[in-house]
Design goal:
One of its GO terms (biological process) is cell division. The chain has 2 domains: 112 residues, Threonyl-tRNA Synthetase, Chain A, domain 2; 285 residues, P-loop containing nucleotide triphosphate hydrolases (Rossmann fold). 38% of the residues lie in helices and 21% in strands. The protein is built from 14 helices and 21 strands. The chain starts with a helix and ends with a strand. The structure holds adenosine-5'-triphosphate (ATP). The site of adenosine-5'-triphosphate has 13 residues, from helix 7 and strand 19.
Amino acid sequence: MVWSLAVWFGSALLILAVLTQRWWDPWLAKSGVDWRAFPLRWYLLGFPATVIRIRWRWKQVCLINDLSISRKPTRMAVGDLAVRGTALRPIAPSLGLPRVTRTGLVVRVRLNPGQTPRPFLNATGALEHAWRVHRVRISSPRRGELIVTVTAQDSLSRGDAKADQQPDRFLAARVGRIEDGGAWVLDLREIPHWLLVGATQSGKSTLLAAWVVRLAPQRLALVGIDCKGGLELGLVESRLSALACNRPEAIELLRALVQEMQDRMAACRAARVRSIWQLPESERPVPIVVLVDELAELYLSDGSRESRDEVAQCATLLLRVAQLGAALGLHLVVAGQRVGSELGPGVTALRAQLGGRIAHRVNDEATAEMALGDLSPDAIAVAQTIEPDEKGVAVTTVGGRWMRARSDLTTPEQARTVADKHAHLTPHLPVLAHCMTGGGTSE
Ligand SMILES: Nc1ncnc2c1ncn2[C@@H]1O[C@H](COP(=O)(O)OP(=O)(O)OP(=O)(O)O)[C@@H](O)[C@H]1O
């Protein structure tokens, strides 16, 4: 009896709070109370309020945005009117039961016969406005069915201190947040090679810096190829086992890496194993993560024979590292503004080997398509909606799906400080001796 009274009272209070939210919400904000930061706020209030709003406005939103069909009149129709004055009635697609998630909800929509997902994809802005949510994403896993994913608030702009403190697994790096509020973890054991594209000032170098900062304390070698004169990767030079700052140096470095791969291959063959991960730990060579900033610098040619030769060598060597590296502990992280076939045929082959994809804001659809095309057409559309002021925001692969994510802002000073702090962990690889930057510990 007491319990049922409490449940009734609680439910009534909840409904009242939901219905009056538009009055007390601005008042609380003005008084400086950030109720959105309360951990259970979304489950207790946000979710019920959003569900009510979605159900309440569904038919109206569908009607305004041409997402309904008209009921076929049972009697003969003349123009837009049915005989006997029966007006044609719009029928909205049927909305399923919403399922709550950590930062929003997911709801299934069954389309009326003849409806396609396209008008719904075009209407996401209207749905966000009508439901007062941060983001609405629509995918269509099956014909006649939509999955509508609603994100209540912009979780990419808020910090997550707990995730920040979590130590990284070996070869994994927590570089930011994904839009469902979780940690954005780039794991080189799971996906050995990554491609990172984005227009200038979209956040590529900051993401690379965040990546280096998280990898720096681990027992691995970092190697840099930065043909923009080493301006970006030079910041973390103290933690790099080698750094190439122009194309001839890059070729020398890549040759040394291919040599290292061959040595590792021989060691695996001798031990009759298929990868360095099957070697006993004491004999296992350190993994090498090769960071390439601005891929185009390796592929652009001025037409002279010398530069064409250099480009061909870079293309072949990079491709070899990408093709054979994963099992031998060599990982590629390649960043660039464009990765299209206009840079040469080698780029297309290389791109196919880079399984992990990250697309920051891009200037054109073609670049988004090159980076994300094999993921999903929806991901391409979303990459193009990243605004210039959304620095560090990207669309990426997470567990076989795509998601929006944002890197942690890592300043050049932070990157330099962390690199200096862990400089003593920099392994000295004999094969890279002639490409060495500063000193390193002997491996
Ligand atoms: N996650 C982030 N949060 C906030 N600001 C960011 C983030 N990532 C990048 N920025 C800001 O965006 C600006 C451009 O970043 P960055 O230099 O990484 O871009 P880029 O793509 O490497 O540019 P370029 O190709 O010109 O080198 C910088 O001022 C940086 O501080």
